[in-house]
Design a protein that fits this description.
Chains A, B: Homodimer. Chains A, B: Pfam families: tRNA_int_endo (PF01974), tRNA_int_endo_N (PF02778). Chains A, B: Its EC number is 4.6.1.16. Chains A, B: Keywords: Endonuclease, Hydrolase, Lyase, Nuclease, tRNA processing. 2 copies of one chain form a homodimer. Chain A has 358 residues and is of the alpha+beta class. Among the domains of chain A are: 136 residues, MutS, DNA mismatch repair protein, domain I; 79 residues, tRNA intron endonuclease, N-terminal domain (MutS, DNA mismatch repair protein, domain I, 3-Layer(aba) Sandwich), CATH 3.40.1170.20. A 10-stranded mixed sheet of chain A has the order 7-8-9-11-12-22-21-19-18-17, sandwiched between helices. In chain A, helix 2 crosses helix 4, helix 6 packs antiparallel against helix 7 and helix 6 crosses helix 8. Chain A is elongated, with a radius of gyration of 27 Å. Chains A and B meet through helix 3, helix 4, helix 6 and helix 9 of A and helix 3, helix 4, helix 6 and helix 9 of B.
């Protein structure tokens, strides 16, 4: 016989007596145990039991009203109830137990903007292990960059489909050539928003992968076109005979403050032995190559990097687009968040986002 | 022996005498013929001949200075010279002839923001046929929606790689079920930013593809979750028992004015026999199915639709991202531009963008 619950609107929790502890908590991971056999359920847990027909009804302790699934859901008990319920039900149907990321559901809940603690498959709230912290948002909820946490983000779209993203730290590093190999003072001209380097040593392109040869010229003395980022980096190191500040100034003219942020990330990647090339065709700032020995034997680029200021606010739809595209071309989407730290390597936070099927 | 040209800065044109007409114009499609054997060249044409070594030098008519390729290019003769030259050279290397889209290069030049008339392969300026109108922008140049034209858009990225997009009109149409099949006044609840329809006829989902069944319920009486767009459309037609204006009002609360634009496009697509479902996973507004007979035998969705106001300004990088993603999932990217025409079908302009390899 199905039990009934009692909804206390004051504490926003549903109490169930009878043999609830054994039936719902111990064997199936719902709620937290109270004295005797009573348990307390979060609204999503209670709704799920109602939905499954495991709870018969929930009685509103204040009004005495008897609520079935439809009536209980229509009250939207708690902020974001709808999307939380959908994700809760989805993960349970995939064989996971999960609890609200709060005491007393879990003893040591993960901090930050987290909705649920998801337990490893086959484990429950009493087993002392958490597989990951889960945050849930609707597709219209903006996500400030400062709220990113290692864990999983579930986005519920307007038609109630769910996408899961695994969020992690990603520190790019590589073995590509160092500045030691750069030439000295090659002749170069600054044109509109690019730079032409006139007949530099072949290795500038072929080994260290700067620029792009102008088509149709003899290959043993290429004329290289460089982006303003590449040119600013090369000018700073004396490899081309342009004033570094002049190149940066042009960059700011055509791109605004975005240019300095991108140059910070470009420089940091180069110093980490990673070659950044434009990610334009993928809608990103850079695609990156960790281990360039020569352009002739260039491997697959591994990362797509998008540069944002540290106070950027993500829209889930843009995240979906970026991550989906990166996945489709077998690259990992990385966000470089640039703050105003004085030391360059401190100024950048690197985050990766990847699609996840729980 | 290579000829020399004469650059008149006043009219921005390079004149070449000798046997130039036969050598450069008649046999290879450069410039336009003047009296005798003289021809006039646009700066990109002259630069290309210099670059190839076909012209020896260009003499500045005012100063008498003798310019080689580097010096001529460094002057950036004309707006957007750099990107125009790159695309001109690329298309010539692919075997196409092209001329500035202006008289007297071509007798009846295409209107609007067009840079070049590209001739069919094997044809030239004298043959009276244009394969397409070509517009060229750098990746940092914004493109107002009002400037879209049928033709080809070439975008030159910061590292001087070129992407070609074919722009065309695309009027979606299909054979999916009509409103006649809709039920009458199904019970529904409005929750936060979605609507639950309680046990509607199975066909509402299965035949006309509204909503998404709540997982884990019996399938012969599904509980459907609908987006606010679907719900606004269904409420307007009396298929669910919610006030249409209440649903639209909620839509505006959570999405702002974007909601009405999207509803206009949603409604127009439905009335054209096309089923729009959310395009969230592709970062778009809709993916569309032209011929839905049943959800069980659902084909591949054909279009990704992004909705913008008619005065929207595109950034080439976003275009690249959208078109690349659509291509990767074998769909066509379509932009629905919504103006404020009073008649709905007049209010929407439909444009498709697809990658092109010339």
């Amino acid at each position: 016989m199905a039990l009934e619950g009692r909804f206390e609107t004051d504490d926003g929790v549903v109490y169930v007596g009878g043999d609830a502890r054994q039936r719902y908590h111990d064997s199936r991971g719902y709620g937290y145990p109270l004295e005797g056999n009573e348990i307390a359920l979060a609204p999503v847990e209670a709704a799920h039991l109602l939905y499954r027909g495991d709870l018969e009804a929930i009685v509103d302790a204040a009004s005495g009203e008897r609520l079935r699934f439809r009536e209980f859901v229509a009250r939207e008990p708690g902020e974001g109830f709808g999307v939380r319920f959908l994700v809760y039900a989805d993960l349970r149907s995939r064989g996971f137990y999960l609890s609200p990321a709060a005491e007393p559901w879990v003893p040591d809940p993960p901090g930050g903007e987290v909705d649920f603690a998801v337990f490893p498959r086959g484990k429950g709230p009493g087993d002392g292990k958490i597989a990951y912290a889960l945050r849930i948002v609707g597709e219209r909820t903006d996500i400030p960059a400062a709220e990113l946490r290692e864990g999983v983000l579930a986005v519920v779209d307007e038609e109630s489909e769910i996408t899961y993203f695994e969020i992690g730290r990603r520190n790019p590093s590589g073995t590509s050539g160092s500045d030691a190999a750069l030439p000295d003072g090659c002749e170069a001209d600054l044109l509109a928003d690019r730079v032409v380097v006139w007949e530099p040593p072949l290795d500038l392109y072929e080994r260290t992968f700067y620029g792009q040869p102008l088509e149709g010229r003899e290959y043993d003395e290429p004329t290289l076109q460089c982006s303003l980022l590449e040119a600013a980096y090369l000018a700073e190191r004396g490899a081309i005979d342009l004033e570094p500040e002049m190149v940066r100034e042009r960059g700011r003219e055509v791109e605004g403050e975005r240019f300095d942020r991108r140059l910070t990330v470009y420089t940091e990647l180069r110093e980490r032995g990673v070659v950044p090339k434009t990610g334009y065709k993928f809608g990103a700032d850079f695609r990156t190559y960790a281990d360039v020995e020569s352009v002739e034997n260039l491997g697959h680029s591994e990362l797509l990097v998008r540069v944002h200021p540290a106070d950027y606010v993500f829209e889930p739809r843009d995240l979906a687009l970026d991550v989906r595209l990166a996945h489709g071309v077998r690259k990992t989407m990385v966000f470089a968040l640039v703050g105003d730290g004085t030391d360059r390597s401190d100024a950048i936070e690197w985050w990766s986002l990847e699609r996840l099927t729980p």
